[in-house]
Write a structure and sequence with these properties.
single chain, 390 residues, alpha/beta, FAD/NAD(P)-binding domain, 7-stranded mixed beta sheet, 13 helices, disordered C terminus
Length: 390
């Protein structure tokens, strides 16, 4: 009975991190990814201190820190360019021991894959859960090669997770947040942006994040009906944000229309009753899909991966206990920030911006203290078993 083997369904950041964490514990693991290649969906990624510590435990944290582009300050502005709040990245690093490292999502994928043994990741390999197993029986997964049994199956198959639907068929599933997003990377901007951070308007925002090698990650979000699309998303971005403060319009004009990604934002607004059943555990978007307004979606998936591997297949209730309350709080917090972005009435927006400006007058440590419950998380140790897993 192959109780010492693990199967990961899904080759995104969470699934790859789980595979690497399990590998570091000496557990044989295979990743099945439905897509033909590991092309990352999303242009850039912010790795907060909590995620960087988790990546340290996987042995790839320093590699990704080295790829992050340093910048002196981040902040929040109005579309007119008026600053509402600013903070130095040095203050973040001094307070938490690490900055928020902005890297290309592809760099994270590459770092995780290259740390895994060759052949661990199988692309073009759709896998579906057949049976979750129990204490006496392995879980069973159907793959293109037939059925495979494992002592642990990790459902990392995203927001539309078929694994989650099998484990919890009564759960209502994801709910549309009301926001759509655009993301792209400008490889050769005409000039390095001086203003870094986000610009908040009425029911929409735009963000600017310098990356390594002079590139700039640009993202935007706006209230829109689910499924709405424009025949020209580049023109749509300029229509919505082309009159905002510099350098937003300039960067959008330089964006390659073929590389603009648009996705609606769905979330698991209703928490799952657990993140496991039998010998199957869910992580990342499959477990707690959230809006992007705290920049914690991938960070929490990486946390999940380390905690799951440290907990082990025989103590999955402990994994749920360690992750459910924390991730539910972060999902709720991100939704609350989204509600502030969604404000559109002039009076409500004025009150929001005034409150943010007053908060911005406080010393850095007062503002950073609010993120401490998220950023101060410490990963459990990933100890390699001295004897094979039973």
């Amino acid at each position: 009975m192959p109780l010492n083997q693990a199967i990961v369904i899904g080759g995104g950041i969470g699934g790859l991190a789980a595979a690497l964490a399990l590998h570091r514990r000496g557990i044989p693991v295979t990743v099945h990814e439905r897509a033909a290649s590991l092309e990352p969906v999303g242009a850039g990624l912010a790795l907060a201190p909590n995620a960087l510590r988790a990546l340290d435990s996987l042995g790839v944290g320093d590699r990704l820190r080295a790829l992050a582009a340093p910048h002196p300050a981040v902040g929040l502005r109005r579309p007119s360019g008026r600053w509402l709040a600013r903070s130095s990245t040095g203050a973040v690093e001094a307070y938490f021991g690490d900055p928020v490292a902005a890297v290309a999502r592809a760099a994270v994928i590459d770092a995780l894959v290259e740390a895994l043994p060759e052949g661990t990741v199988r692309t073009g390999s759709a896998a579906t859960l057949v049976s979750p197993g129990d204490a006496a029986n392995p879980a069973v997964v159907h793959t293109p090669d037939g059925e495979s049994a494992a002592g642990l199956v990790v459902g990392a198959d995203g927001i539309r997770s078929a694994t989650r639907a099998t484990l919890f068929p009564q759960h209502p599933g994801p709910r549309y947040s009301g926001f759509t997003t655009w993301r792209t990377i400008v490889d050769t901007p005409a000039r390095r942006p001086a203003g870094v951070g986000e610009v908040w308007g009425r029911g929409r925002l735009a963000g600017i994040v310098p990356l390594a090698d002079g590139r700039v990650y640009v993202y935007a979000a706006a209230l829109a009906p689910a499924g709405e699309r424009s025949p020209d998303e580049h023109a749509e971005l300029l229509r919505r944000f082309g009159t905002w403060c510099a350098p937003v319009p300039e960067l959008l004009r330089q964006a390659d229309p073929a590389r603009i990604l648009r996705h609606d934002v769905w979330e698991l607004a209703d928490p799952l009753p657990a993140y496991h059943r039998g010998r199957v555990a869910l992580l990342g978007d499959a477990a707690h899909a959230m809006t992007p307004f705290q920049g914690q979606g991938a960070c929490q998936a990486i946390e999940d991966a380390v905690v799951l591997a440290a907990t082990g297949a025989d103590r999955l209730p402990a994994y749920t206990a360690a992750r459910l309350a924390r991730t539910t709080r972060i999902v709720t917090g991100s939704r609350r920030i989204g509600a502030l972005v969604a404000l559109r009435s002039p009076t409500a927006v004025l009150l929001r911006d005034t409150t943010l400006a007053l908060a911005g007058l406080l010393p850095d440590h007062h503002l950073l203290r609010r993120t401490a419950p998220t950023y101060n998380w410490q990963p459990p140790a990933l100890e390699t078993p001295s004897t094979p897993t039973p």
